[in-house]
Backbone:
């Protein structure tokens, strides 16, 4: 069953770009923007990350912590962060545990072939670990605006 606004956010633990273990409970008492994206350094994912980067101070001012998740590994995340000067951490969900827990590991199709991949989705999680907002139709170039206007 798909996650809904008001549900408790699924608990997770994954490594960030530095190999540090990051858990949902690390953000207790904070508002978390947990955004899932398909792949580092692709046009849409770069536009999305840069929108969040360019509006990072406004996000912090509203009390948000930003955390990106993809199935890329730590090394790919390090390159992506360095290349685009991203001020937030990215989780390396190489075993797909987090994308599956949040229901964003889905069947996709391109050019007539089907494959499994990450659905670009953002969850805004409140201070108590409840899902406050789900953004399914992400505007990659104005993603920070979507979050800030929520």
Residues:
């Amino acid at each position: 069953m798909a996650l809904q606004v008001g549900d408790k956010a699924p608990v997770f633990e994954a490594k960030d770009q530095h190999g540090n273990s990051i858990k949902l409970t690390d953000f207790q008492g904070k508002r978390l923007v947990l955004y899932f994206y398909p792949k580092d350094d692709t046009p849409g994912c770069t536009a999305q990350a840069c929108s969040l980067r360019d509006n990072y101070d406004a996000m912090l001012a509203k009390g948000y912590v930003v955390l990106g998740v993809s199935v890329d590994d730590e090394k790919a995340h390090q390159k992506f962060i360095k290349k685009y000067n991203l001020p937030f951490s990215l989780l390396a969900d190489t075993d797909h545990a987090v994308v599956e827990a949040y229901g964003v590991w889905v069947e996709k199709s391109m050019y007539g072939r089907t494959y499994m991949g990450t659905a670009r989705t953002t969850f805004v999680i409140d201070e108590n670990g409840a899902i406050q907002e789900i953004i399914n139709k992400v505007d990659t170039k104005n993603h920070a605006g979507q979050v800030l206007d929520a």
In short: Residues 31 and 126 are 5 Å apart (CA to CA). Strands lie at 13-16, 21-23, 31-36, 64-70, 89-92, 105-110, 113-118, 121-125, 131-135. The helical segments are 43-54, 56-61, 74-84, 97-101, 143-148.
